[in-house]
């Protein structure tokens, strides 16, 4: 049996129903399996990222069929071969969840992510949003990040860095395992 190969697809296009179905149909018809994916509507645009796997000939076939994928889905895709998730792991790490909330102001996302970066932390996923508070209608910013803290980094050191950001940015920050 041929070695399994991996491919990341990143697509963007005007939001409409059926875009995920069209994309996954295109992949399945070409012998590829969806391993992992993320999707979001931002403004009026729909973004989709997919990690797909399959035999080398299926991956090559999809790389050659990018324009047909764009036409079939109404999105614009960038395709890139990658390694398996297992091959990407550099060292043992513990998963943590970081949550930050505050009245919205510029620079929150940068301050939190920069503190994580400076602490040697890899962000696995990140989601931010601005919503109106229920009673006052004040704009409230929220950030949820799933991170990997390697064995070589103390979670206490990361907490200290995030607490400094919380003080500087007037945020509520929580970091917990999981």
For the residues shown, what is the average pLDDT?
94
Q: How would you sum up the major sheet?
A: 4 strands, antiparallel
First-to-last CA distance: 36 Å
Task: Characterize the overall form.
Answer: flat
How many structurally independent domains? 2
Q: Give the helix/strand class.
A: alpha+beta
Task: Please bin the fraction of helical residues.
Answer: 25-40%
Give the CATH H-level superfamily of the largest domain.
ACT domain
How many distinct helices?
6
The total count of strands amounts to: 8
How much β-strand is present in the residues?
A: 35-45%
Architecture per CATH nomenclature, i.e. the level-2 architecture of the largest domain: 2-Layer Sandwich
CATH topology call of the largest domain: Alpha-Beta Plaits
Helices and strands, in order, run as: EHEEHHEHEHEEHE
What Rg do the Cα atoms give? 19 Å
Note poorly predicted spans.
Answer: none
Task: Tell me the name of the CATH class of the largest domain.
Answer: Alpha Beta
Strand order of the largest sheet: 2-3-1-4
């Amino acid at each position: 049996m041929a070695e399994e190969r991996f491919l990341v697809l990143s697509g963007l296009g005007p939001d409409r129903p059926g875009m995920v179905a069209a994309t996954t149909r295109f992949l399945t018809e070409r012998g590829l399996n969806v391993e992992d994916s993320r999707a979001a509507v931002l403004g009026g645009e729909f973004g989709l990222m997919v990690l797909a796997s399959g035999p080398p000939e299926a991956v090559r076939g999809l790389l050659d069929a990018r324009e047909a994928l764009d036409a079939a889905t109404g999105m614009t895709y960038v395709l890139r071969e990658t390694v398996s998730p297992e091959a990407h792991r550099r060292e043992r790490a513990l998963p943590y969840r970081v949550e930050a909330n505050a009245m919205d102001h510029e620079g929150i996302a940068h301050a939190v992510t920069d503190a994580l970066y400076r602490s040697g932390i890899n962000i696995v996923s990140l989601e931010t949003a601005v919503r109106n508070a229920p009673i006052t209608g004040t704009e409230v910013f929220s950030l949820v990040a799933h991170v990997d803290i390697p064995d070589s980094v103390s979670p206490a050191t990361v907490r200290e860095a995030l607490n400094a950001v919380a003080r500087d940015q007037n945020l509520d920050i929580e970091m917990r395992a999981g």
